[in-house]
Specification:
- The complex is a heterodimer of chains A (about 950) and B (about 400).
- Chain A has helices spanning about 35-50, 105-115, 120-125, 130-135, 140-150, 155-175, 180-205, 205-260, 270-300, 310-320, 320-350, 355-365, 370-415, 420-450, 460-480, 480-500, 510-580, 595-635, 645-700, 705-735, 745-780, 785-845, 875-895, 915-925, 955, and strands at about 1-10, 15-20, 25-30, 70-75, 80-85, 95-100, 105, 125-130, 850-855, 860-865, 870, 905, 935, 950-955.
- By secondary structure, chain A is an alpha/beta fold.
- With about 400 residues, chain B is of the alpha/beta class.
- Chain B contains 11 helices and 15 strands.
- In chain B, helix 5 (about 265-285) links the parallel strand 13 and strand 14 (about 285-295).
- In chain B, helix 8 (about 345-355) runs antiparallel to helix 11.
- The longest helix of chain B is centred in the last third of the chain and has 22 residues, at about 385-405.
- The radius of gyration of chain B is 25 Å and the shape is globular.
- The model of chain B has no long low-confidence stretch (mean pLDDT about 85).
- Classes of the chains: A alpha/beta (about 950), B alpha/beta (about 400).
C-alpha cells in the first residue's frame, strides 16, 4: 500500500495543503515548528480516526478555524486507488472512502482497506520515533523480550489476561474430575435425575406384571368362590340332614302308633252330640211324668155346686157400700157436732165464770136483750170519760212538780255565785274613790305648771324603773319571783344611789301625785267592776222566786179537780156491779168487757139448743146401721161387726170369685198338658232314634263303647296332627340326601369343612388385599405425573447443561484461539523475524554481531562471531537501537505480504554516527523497493542522503497552498 | 360418489418432555409439560365436535421408552371417547412406538384399527363410498428400508385410496431417516391421499394428489417453531381440500424486536412488551426466542453495559404475571457487520485463527466437555450452526474484553 497524496483541509497549523508522495523513501524536511509532526499526525488521524478527547492526544483542530480534516490518497494492492477522507463529525470524525469504481465506504470499509489495523497496532510496528528508541534502553529485559516477541503488537497483555480469564471461567464451569464447577454439579444433578427416571421406569415396568397379577388374582378369587360355594352346598346338605334326623325318627314312631289304632271314623263331635241327645231324652222323660201327675191331680179338684147365685147376692150387697159408708159418716159427724157444742159451752162458761150447773141454768134464763145492753153501755161510757179526765189532771200535776224542782236548783246555783262581803264592800267604796281621783288630778296639774323647767333629772327613776321592769319581765319569763324581788331591791338601791347623786333636786315630793293618781285610778276601775257584779246578782234572784210562787198555786187547783172525779167514778161502778150480782156474777173489773159478757151469754144459750137437736138425729142413724149389719150376717153366715163389715164382705166375695177362676184355669191347664204330653212323647222317640244312629256310625252298641271309640279316635287325630307337623318341617328343610357317612365321620367332616372355609376366606382376603394394593399402584401409575415431570426436569437440566457447555465452549474457543495465536507467533513468525532481524543487525553492526537469538528464558541475546552472548541491556545505546530497528524492519518485512503498510520514521537516527547512518541508509535503500518510507527529519543532510528520495520541504508547504480537487 | 371427511394427525409424542428450555419456574414448566396432552385433548375434542368419518394417526403417539403410563392411559381415554361417538380411528405405529417395544400395551376400544407390521389394506365404507386405507406399523425401531414399494397400486376407479406412511422423504436428513420414499414413487401408486408422519414440520410435498406431513400437534423443541396441529381433509375423486387445525397449546417461536432508534432501556422494554403482547394476542401461551435487530452502536453500548442474562431476567419479570404466559427463552442480538469493534492486529490474528477452524478442529477443541465420559451422554452433538454460534459468541467476547481494555 502506498500513500500517494495528502490533502489537508485544516489540521493544526496546516490549511489547504496538498502533498504528493512517491513510492520508496519520502523525506519530510523542516526545522522545528515547521509542522512535520503535524503532518505525521494528520496521516494517522485520517486513517485511524481523530484521537478521542479522552485519549490525551492532540486533535489538531485547525488554528484558523477552517474545516478540520483532509484526504489521504492511497494506492492499495487490493482495492486500487482509494481516497480516505475524514472530516469533522462525530468524535472520531466522519469518514468517507472513495473507490476507483465510484463506490463509497465508511469506517468499516476503511478497516478492510487498512487490514483491520488500528492506530496502536500500526504505531507499534510501522512507526517509530527517536523517543521510542531512547526509551528502548529503559525497558526491562522481559518487557523488551515480550514486545519483540509479540512482533511489536500491542494488546498482548490484554490478550494474556483474556486467556487467563477464559481459563478461569472454564474452570468455574467445568473440571474434568471436579465436583464443584457448575457443569459438574449439573452433570451430577442430571445423573441423579436419570437415576430417578430409571426408578420410575422400573416402576412403570411393574405395571404390566401388576395387571397380569390382578387378572390372575381375579381368576383365583373366582376359583375360591366356586370352591366355597361347593363346600357350602355340602355343608348345607349335611346340616339339613342333621337337623332332619330326629324328625324322621319321630315320624316313623308316629306312623307305627297310628297303625295300631283301628278306629277309623267317629261321628263329628259325636260325644257332644250324644250327650246333648241324652240330656234331652232324660229331660223329656221327666217332663212326661210330671205332666201325667198334673193331669191326675187336677181331676180331683172341682166345685160341688154352682157358686154364681151366691156371688150375685154378695155383689148386690156390696153395691150398697156407699150408702153404708154415708150412714157411718153421718153418725160420726153428728156425734162430733154434739161434742163440739158441748165443748164450746164449757169454754164460754169458763170464760164468763159459771161455777156450777145451777149457775148455768140461771145464765140460760138470763135476759140479755138489746135495751138492757144499751142501758149498761151508757154507764160504761161515763166511766171511761171520768178515767180520761183523771189521767189528764195527773199529767199536769207531775209536770208542775218537775218545774218546781228546776227553779229550786237555779236558785241554789245563783246563790253560789253570790258576791262576797269584801266585794260588796269594795263596791261600796266606789264613790269615795272617784272623789279622791278628782282631787289628785287637780294637785298634779298645779305641780306640773310650777316645776316644769326646774326638774329635768328623772333619770334615776327611769334607770331604776327600767331595772325594775327588766327584773319583772325576767321574772315573768323565768317564773322566779326571787329575781323580781331582787330586781326590786336593786332598783331601790340604784334609785337611792342615784337620788343621792341628784341631791340638787329638792322638789322630789311634788312628783308623788302622779303615782297616786295612777293607783287611785286602778282602784276605781276595780270598784266599778264589783258594783256591776252585785247589782246583776240581785236582779236574777228576785225573778226566780216569783216564778216559784206562781207554780205552787196551780198545783193546788189540780188536786181539787182530781178528788171530784174520783167520786163520780165510784158511783158508776156501783150501779153496774149491782146488775151483775143479780145473775150470780161477781162484778167486772173492767167496764169495757161488759158488752163481751153479753155476747158470750147469748152464745151459750144458742149452743144449748143445738146439742139437744143433734142428739136425737144421732140416735136415728145408729138404728139404721144395726139393721144393715143384721142383713149382712145373714148373707155371709159370719158375725160381722160394724167396723169391718164391708171389708170382710168384700173379702168373702173375692174368695168366691177366686175359687171360680181357679177352676176354669185348671181345666184349661189339663187340656194343655195333654197336648204337651203327646208332643214330648214324639220328641222322645226322635231323640232315641238319633242316639241309635250315632252308635251305628261309631260302630258301637252301647254308651261305654261309644266313649271308648271316641278316645281312640281322638288319639289317632292328635297323632296324625303331630305327624303332619313333622312332615311340614321336613318339607321345609327340603330334600335330604342320606349321607354315606356315619355320625362320627360327619362330625369330623364338618370340622374339616369349617377349616377349609376359613382357609379359603383367609386366602381370599389376602388376594383381595393384594389386588387392592396392585390396583392402587396401577391407578397411581396411570395418573402419575411424576415420571413426566422428572423427564421434563431432566430435559431442562440437559438444556441448562448445554447452555453451560456452550459458555464453556466459547471460553475454550477464546482461549484456544489466543493460545494458537501466541504459538503461531512464537513458532512461525518469530523465527522468520529473527532471521531477518539477524541479517539486518549483522549488516547494521558491520558483522560485529553474528546472530540475534532468543534464549530458553525468552530473552533476546546478541551473539558475536566469537560466540559470546550479550544480553540486550549489556549492549551500547546505539547497538540497542540498531537491534530494535532491525527487529522493526524484520517485522515489517515479515508482514510485507499480509499488511503492506508504509513505514513512518521520525528522525530515529540522531544518535547514530556517520558510519551507522550510512549502514542504515543502505538498508533502507535496500528495502525501498518493497516498502514506502515516510521519513521526517530536521537535519539538512538527511535531504540528500538518499539519492532517489523525494524530499518535501515542510516549511515551503504553507506558501504553495492549493484547493483540494475533489 | 360423495366427499369424505377425515382428520390426519401424526407425531403426538404424548407426555414427551419439552426440550431446550431452561430456568423456567416450576408452574410454567408444568403447563409446558402438559402441552402435549392439551394438544391431544384439542384434537379429540375437535374430532368429537366435528364428527369426521374417521381419524388417521400416522405414528409416534408416544415417545419410545420414555412413554409414561399416563400418556397411554390418556390416549386410551381419548380413544374410548371417540368410540363412544362412533368415530373410527386408524393407527400406524412409527419408530417411536414400534411394535417391538417391551412396554405395556393398553387395550384400545373397537373403533380403533391398528395396522400390523405387515402392510395391510383396510376397506371402509363411508356413505356407499369405498375407501381403502393402507398402512403398516414399525415392527422395530429402525426401519431403514423403503416401505413404499409394498403399497399396492390403486385399481378401482370408484374407490378412494389413502396411504399412511411414517417415514422420511429420501434425502431429507433433518430427522433420522426411516422408511425413505420418493415423491414420484408415491405418485405412481395413484392414491388419493398420502398421510405422512415422522417429520415434525408441517408440509405439503405434493398438492394433487396430496402428499402431506401434518407435522406434530405440539412443538416440543426449540427447533420445532410455529403453530402446530393437524389437517382436516375433505376428499373426493380428484379433488381435495385441506384445512389446517391448530392444536398446540403452547407455541414456540422466534420473534423479532427491532431496536431502531432505541437508546434507553425503558424504550427497549416497551418495544419488547409490544412484541411479546402481539405474540400473546396472536397465539396465547408460548415460548419465544427474541432476536433483536437493527442495533446501532449506541443501542449496542446500552446492551453491553449489562450482561444479557440480566436483561433476560428483567424481561421475564415484566412478563411474569401476564396471562396467558409467554416465556422468553432467550434474547439474541443480531450483530451487523458495521459494529465490528476496532481490532488490533493481534486481535485480528486471534479472530482469523478462530475463523480458520473447521468442524473437526472445533470438535477437538471442545472435546474436553463434549466427549467427556460423564457429560457427553447428556449432550447432543454440536451442529455446524452451533459451532458458528460459539464462534460468534467467542468473537463478541474477545471484542468486548479487548476493546474495553484498550
Amino acid at each position: 500500500m502506498r500513500i500517494q497524496k495528502l490533502v489537508i483541509y485544516g489540521f493544526g497549523q496546516h490549511e489547504d495543503i496538498q502533498i504528493d508522495l512517491k513510492d520508496g523513501i519520502n523525506v519530510f524536511f523542516g526545522l522545528n515548528e515547521a509542522g512535520k509532526t503535524t503532518i505525521q499526525q494528520f496521516i494517522l488521524s485520517v486513517l485511524f480516526g481523530f484521537p478521542l478527547r479522552n485519549q490525551g492526544l492532540l486533535r489538531y483542530e485547525p488554528k484558523g478555524g477552517g474545516k478540520h480534516g483532509g484526504q489521504v490518497h492511497i494506492l492499495h494492492p487490493e482495492f486500487g486507488k482509494v481516497i480516505v477522507e475524514r472530516t469533522k463529525g462525530k468524535s472520531a470524525g466522519d469518514v468517507t472512502v472513495y473507490f476507483e469504481n465510484g463506490a463509497r465506504g465508511d469506517e468499516e470499509t476503511l478497516k478492510k482497506v487498512l487490514y483491520r489495523y488500528d492506530r496502536a497496532s500500526f504505531e507499534s510496528i510501522f512507526s517509530f520515533t527517536i523517543l521510542q528508541l531512547q526509551n528502548f534502553d529503559k525497558m526491562t529485559e522481559e518487557e523488551l523480550s515480550r514486545t519483540l516477541l509479540a512482533s511489536g503488537t500491542t494488546g498482548v497483555d490484554a490478550m494474556n489476561k483474556l486467556e487467563q480469564r477464559a481459563s478461569k471461567e472454564m474452570n468455574i464451569l467445568f473440571k474434568k474430575s471436579g465436583k464443584n464447577p457448575e457443569m459438574n454439579i449439573k452433570i451430577e444433578e442430571i445423573r441423579t435425575l436419570e437415576q430417578t427416571l430409571k426408578e420410575s421406569r422400573s416402576q412403570i415396568d411393574q405395571y404390566e406384571p401388576s395387571i397380569i397379577r390382578i387378572s390372575e388374582i381375579e381368576q383365583e378369587l373366582k376359583r375360591i368362590h366356586e370352591e366355597e360355594s361347593e363346600l357350602k352346598i355340602q355343608n348345607e346338605q349335611l346340616a339339613k340332614y342333621r337337623q332332619a334326623k330326629p324328625l324322621v325318627e319321630q315320624q316313623q314312631e308316629l306312623k307305627a302308633k297310628l297303625s295300631n289304632i283301628s278306629q277309623n271314623s267317629f261321628p263329628k263331635e259325636g260325644i257332644r252330640r250324644f250327650e246333648g241327645l241324652k240330656d234331652r231324652v232324660q229331660e223329656l222323660t221327666i217332663q212326661i211324668t210330671q205332666l201325667e201327675q198334673n193331669i191326675q191331680q187336677s181331676k180331683g179338684q172341682a166345685f160341688e155346686k154352682d157358686p154364681n147365685e151366691h156371688i150375685k147376692q154378695l155383689e148386690s150387697t156390696l153395691a150398697k157400700e156407699s150408702e153404708w159408708h154415708h150412714l157411718k159418716l153421718r153418725k160420726q159427724q153428728l156425734a162430733n157436732e154434739r161434742d163440739q157444742a158441748t165443748r164450746d159451752i164449757e169454754q164460754q162458761m169458763r170464760l164468763i165464770g159459771i161455777k156450777d150447773k145451777e149457775h148455768f141454768s140461771r145464765v140460760v134464763k138470763m135476759d140479755v136483750s138489746l135495751q138492757k145492753e144499751e142501758h149498761f153501755q151508757n154507764i160504761v161510757n161515763d166511766l171511761s170519760q171520768v178515767d180520761e179526765s183523771m189521767r189528764y189532771e195527773n199529767q199536769g200535776l207531775s209536770r208542775l212538780q218537775s218545774e218546781l224542782e228546776e227553779s229550786n236548783r237555779n236558785l241554789a246555783e245563783l246563790k253560789e255565785e253570790a258576791p262576797t262581803n269584801e266585794e260588796i264592800e269594795l263596791a261600796s267604796k266606789k264613790a269615795a274613790l272617784v272623789n279622791q281621783l278628782a282631787e289628785l288630778k287637780a294637785l298634779q296639774h298645779v305641780s306640773q305648771i310650777s316645776e316644769e323647767s326646774s326638774n329635768k333629772s328623772n333619770i334615776p327613776f327611769m334607770v331604776s324603773g327600767l331595772i325594775l321592769l327588766t327584773s319583772i319581765i325576767g321574772a315573768a319569763l323565768i317564773g322566779n319571783w326571787l329575781i323580781a324581788s331582787f330586781g326590786l331591791v336593786l332598783a331601790g338601791i340604784i334609785l337611792f344611789l342615784l337620788m343621792k347623786g341628784n341631791q340638787s333636786t329638792p322638789q322630789a315630793k311634788k312628783k308623788d301625785y302622779r303615782e297616786d293618781i295612777t293607783n287611785v285610778e286602778q282602784e276605781l276601775v276595780k270598784a266599778e267592776q264589783m258594783a256591776n257584779k252585785v247589782m246583776n246578782f240581785n236582779g236574777k234572784q228576785k225573778q226566780l222566786l216569783d216564778q216559784q210562787a206562781e207554780k205552787q198555786h196551780v198545783r193546788a187547783k189540780l188536786s181539787e179537780n182530781l178528788t171530784r172525779l174520783t167520786e163520780k167514778k165510784r158511783e158508776a161502778n156501783q150501779h153496774l156491779n149491782e146488775f151483775l150480782m143479780a145473775y150470780g156474777f161477781d162484778g167486772l173489773t173492767q167496764t169495757q168487757l161488759f158488752t163481751e159478757l153479753f155476747k158470750r151469754i147469748r152464745l151459750i144459750q144458742e149452743l144449748h139448743q143445738t146439742i139437744a137437736q143433734k142428739a136425737s138425729e144421732h140416735q136415728k142413724v145408729i138404728e139404721e146401721i144395726h139393721h144393715q149389719i143384721a142383713m149382712m150376717t145373714e148373707l155371709t153366715g159370719e158375725t160381722l161387726n160394724e167396723n169391718n163389715a164391708y171389708h170382710r164382705l168384700r173379702e168373702i166375695t173375692n174368695e168366691w170369685k177366686n175359687r171360680q177362676n181357679k177352676q176354669v184355669f185348671a181345666e184349661e191347664k189339663t187340656n194343655e198338658w195333654n197336648q204337651q204330653l203327646s208332643e214330648k212323647q214324639k220328641l222322645l222317640e226322635v231323640q232315641t232314634n238319633e242316639i241309635d244312629a250315632l252308635w251305628v256310625e261309631a260302630a258301637v252298641s252301647d254308651e261305654a263303647a261309644f266313649y271308648e271309640a271316641d278316645a281312640a279316635y281322638q288319639t289317632k287325630q292328635s297323632l296324625q296332627q303331630e305327624l303332619n307337623a313333622i312332615e311340614m318341617q321336613l318339607h321345609s328343610i327340603g330334600e335330604i340326601v342320606q349321607p354315606q357317612l356315619s355320625e362320627e365321620e360327619q362330625n369330623g367332616y364338618l370340622e374339616n369343612m369349617d377349616d377349609q372355609i376359613a382357609s379359603l376366606e383367609k386366602m381370599r382376603h389376602e388376594l383381595l388385599d393384594e389386588r387392592a394394593m396392585l390396583k392402587q399402584q396401577t391407578n397411581s401409575l396411570l395418573s402419575d405425573e411424576h415420571y413426566g415431570n422428572v423427564l421434563q426436569q431432566f430435559e431442562q437440566k440437559k438444556t441448562e447443561l448445554a447452555e453451560l457447555a456452550h459458555k464453556w465452549a466459547v471460553n475454550k474457543a477464546v482461549m484456544e484461539a489466543i493460545k494458537q495465536t501466541m504459538d503461531n507467533l512464537k513458532e512461525k513468525r518469530l523465527p522468520f523475524v529473527l532471521e531477518k532481524a539477524q541479517q539486518f543487525f549483522t549488516h547494521l553492526t558491520g558483522n560485529r554481531y553474528e546472530t540475534l537469538e532468543v534464549n530458553e528464558e525468552g530473552i533476546f541475546e546478541a551473539v558475536n562471531p566469537q560466540g559470546i552472548r550479550f544480553r540486550l541491556a549489556e549492549l551500547s545505546q546505539a547497538t540497542k537501537e540498531q537491534a530494535y530497528i532491525s527487529l522493526r524492519f524484520a517485522l515489517a518485512e515479515s508482514l510485507i505480504e499480509t499488511v503492506p503498510l508504509p513505514v513512518i520514521m521520525d528522525d530515529p537516527f540522531v544518535h547514530f554516527d556517520q558510519y551507522r547512518v550510512n549502514q542504515m541508509v543502505q538498508l533502507m535503500s535496500h528495502l525501498e523497493s518493497n516498502h514506502q518510507f515516510l521519513y521526517f527529519t530536521c537535519h539538512e543532510e538527511m535531504k540528500s542522503i538518499w539519492p532517489k528520495a523525494h524530499v518535501i520541504d515542510v516549511a515551503a508547504l504553507q506558501k504553495e497552498r492549493s484547493v483540494p480537487s475533489i | 360418489m360423495s366427499a369424505i371427511r377425515f382428520f390426519h394427525a401424526a407425531d403426538l409424542h404424548l407426555d414427551s418432555p419439552f426440550k431446550g428450555v431452561s430456568s423456567m419456574p416450576a408452574d410454567q414448566l408444568k403447563s409446558l409439560r402438559e402441552s402435549t396432552f392439551n394438544a391431544f385433548q384439542s384434537l379429540i375434542d375437535f374430532t368429537v365436535q366435528e364428527k369426521p368419518d374417521f381419524l388417521l394417526i400416522v405414528g409416534d403417539i408416544y415417545d419410545g421408552e420414555d412413554r409414561s403410563l399416563r400418556a397411554q392411559h390418556k390416549f386410551q381415554q381419548g380413544m374410548e371417547l371417540l368410540n363412544k361417538h362412533q368415530i373410527p380411528v386408524f393407527i400406524s405405529y412409527g419408530n417411536h412406538d414400534h411394535l417391538g417395544g417391551k412396554w405395556t400395551r393398553f387395550q384400545l376400544p373397537d373403533n380403533v384399527h391398528v395396522f400390523d407390521k405387515k402392510l395391510e389394506k383396510k376397506l371402509i365404507q363411508i356413505r356407499q363410498q369405498d375407501v381403502y386405507i393402507s398402512g403398516f406399523s414399525y415392527k422395530e425401531r429402525h426401519v431403514k428400508d423403503s416401505m413404499s414399494s409394498l403399497f399396492e397400486e390403486a385399481t378401482q376407479d370408484e374407490a378412494l385410496y389413502i396411504g399412511m406412511l411414517h417415514g422420511s422423504l429420501a434425502g431429507d436428513t433433518t430427522h433420522a431417516v426411516y422408511a425413505p420414499f420418493t415423491k414420484d414413487e408415491l405418485i405412481s401408486k395413484k392414491y388419493d391421499y398420502w398421510a405422512l408422519g415422522h417429520i415434525h414440520k408441517r408440509q405439503v410435498i405434493h398438492a394433487e394428489p396430496p402428499i402431506v406431513y401434518s407435522g406434530n400437534i405440539q412443538s416440543r423443541h426449540r427447533n420445532e417453531k410455529g403453530i402446530k396441529g393437524f389437517y382436516d381433509v375433505s376428499l373426493e375423486k380428484g379433488q381435495s381440500a385441506l384445512t389446517f387445525v391448530p392444536t398446540s397449546s403452547i407455541i414456540y417461536d422466534e420473534v423479532i424486536c427491532s431496536c431502531k432508534d432505541i437508546v434507553h432501556a425503558n424504550e427497549w422494554f416497551e418495544a419488547m412488551d409490544e412484541v411479546i403482547d402481539r405474540f400473546r394476542s396472536e397465539h396465547g401461551a408460548g415460548v419465544v426466542e427474541v432476536l433483536l435487530t437493527e442495533i446501532d452502536v449506541q443501542t449496542h453500548a446500552m446492551f453491553e453495559a449489562t450482561p444479557m442474562d440480566e436483561w433476560l431476567s428483567m424481561i421475564r419479570e415484566n412478563q411474569e404475571f401476564k396471562d396467558p404466559h409467554v416465556w422468553v427463552q432467550s434474547i439474541t442480538l443480531e450483530m451487523p457487520e458495521t459494529i465490528e469493534m476496532e481490532s488490533s492486529g493481534l486481535t485480528e490474528q486471534v479472530l482469523s485463527i478462530m475463523e480458520s477452524w473447521d468442524t473437526q478442529e472445533w470438535k477437538e477443541i471442545v472435546s474436553d466437555v463434549y466427549q467427556h465420559s460423564r457429560s457427553s451422554r447428556f449432550m447432543d452433538k454440536l451442529t455446524e450452526d452451533e459451532y458458528k454460534d460459539i464462534e460468534q459468541n467467542a468473537r463478541a467476547f474477545i471484542h468486548r474484553e479487548l476493546t474495553v481494555k484498550e
